[in-house]
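Moderator note: this is an archived Q&A kept for reference. The question asked for a predicted structure of one protein chain; the sequence and the answer are reproduced below.
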Amino acid sequence: MLFELARVSLSRAGRPVLRDLTCSLREGASALVGPSGSGKSTILRLLNRLSDPDEGSVAYRGADVREREPRALRREVCLVPQLPALIEGTVADNVRFAAACGERNPDVGRLLRLSGLDPAYADRDGARLSVGEQQRVMLARALALEPKVLLLDEPTSALDETARDAVEATLTELRERLDLATVTVTHDPAQARRLADWIVRVDTGRAVEQGAAAEVLQ
């Protein structure tokens, strides 16, 4: 099992966000599906210790995540946020910045190709890219850390249909080429069906259903 969450509760500013949540996320491709505000992104942040629960436990491949040094865990279990957050400079600057956090020496051109961008993008100003292109640079930055798991928070929410399809195709190819596990947060059941084999439905801070995508998303 990739992740196991047991009786997890978490509050912010006195407001419950997760309530006694128990679920599993399997190796391969999983998705957290539910409406906005249901707690999906909060769960994602628990998986690499960007947050810790108030109660309950989160296990990664059989070990409590609190036993892992947070920065080392985040290099192995890497979050790609919903909104691109590039540093000032070129695309290559951004990829090298991320790689330096993991003491890696990146092949920028290869990482851009893996993310669906032409290597010629390396010298472009990140601030002048489209949202879809910036999202791909964020993906390249994550791959620069050589992660074992990608956490994808609404990876296509700001994209039109054409760009969405292209990013989804890239993610599917990445899983096959690099043997990555993925956990995708999405409000769209159709996208979850395209990107995941295992589904956890989340509503009002609870896991209300989980299982194979073909069964949960009938």
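Archived answer notes: Helices lie at 40-47, 70-76, 91-101, 108-114, 131-143, 161-178, 189-195, 213-216.
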